[in-house]
Amino acid sequence: RIRIPWYVSFLGGLGCLVAMFLIEPIAGAAAVVAEIVLWTLLSRREQRVRWGDARRGLYESLIRWALVRLARRPLSARNWRPHVLVFVDGPVRELELVRFANWFAQGRGVVTVCELLVEDPSAGRVDLAAHRRAMQEALDAENLVVFAEVDVVADLVEGVVSVAQANGMAGMASNTILLGWPRDSALQARFLRLLTPLERLHKSLVLGRVLPRSFPSHERSARTIHVWWGGLQRNGDLMLLLAWLLTRNPAWRGARVEVLSLALNEAGRKQTETFLNQLIPEIRIEAEPRVILKPRDRSVAELIHEHSAGADAVFMGLATPEPGEEAAYAERLENLAGDLPTVFFVKNSSLFVGGLLELTEAARDQAGETASPGSGS
Questions:
Q1: What is the dihedral of CA 116, 119, 122, 128, to 10 degrees?
Q2: Is 0.85 topped by the overall pTM?
Q3: DSSP tag of 252
Q4: Percent of the chain at pLDDT exceeding 70
Q5: What distances in angstroms separate CA 43 from CA 34, 39, 47, 228, one per listed residue?
């Protein structure tokens, strides 16, 4: 929770240089010159030998060393971070979705941008290497630190599951799948069928709908992120974590996180308000709780549209519909999203489902008394 402004670090570094020259001016000057010369030479020299760039071999050795030690360290809820696998229908057409994936990773998780080409995998009509290079160049041009991947699959939905379980290696496997919310209602229902197989693979699913517009619309300090808390499906911890990681990025620094919940009666409103006021300080996430009493003549969707109309990003929970009910549930989600500019439906299926914020059983029971916006938050 300790935040050090950049100028404090700069003054500290400057103080170290001053101390060097006070102790021994000649040695200090020589050290500075030597560092500049070494940096200049190494940054311009290819360091090539007859079998290729020596630096690649060095990097691979470092990666192997790190992965071996990473595999020996136990993963806990406290050090869990999203390694995002985002599926796009062309990276240029869905750049905003890729940006959000990069913001969620917050410079710690690995982001892979995958384009699935639906055709006969044995046909070999696509130069995958050339397609991947073009994708990577387009992403690099946007200053996005992500990795491009292109795969040929016979079926789009089945291909998502296959690529998701094969993506990554050792302790760096993808654990969060990000999909754009399609416009086609039939494809919406098919995407919702991914919830069960991905849950078995312990892959969380995030369905994002970013309307085409100039984004974001507000200055950093005026932006708001809304998290609709329901407490029924244990998705709230991942929603809060993603919202908090979003605010850690320079583009969102200073954004305000609001945790909203609907209560069916006054007793439920007070109970939920007490719970959120206790929870937020304990998990050390800066957020403002707001519990809204639901009038009987107003629908959940109407209240969400009213209170989140000005939010720059809205998070809602996602439940697993019963087999055959995917189309009806997709229609309900479409109604909940309405005209909101940026909406993410979140299903937490990680190894630490419901435990990313270390909620106690009593806290979960208390949270479950609210009216759930998506029957899944």
A1: -40
A2: no
A3: G
A4: 86
A5: 14, 6, 10, 48
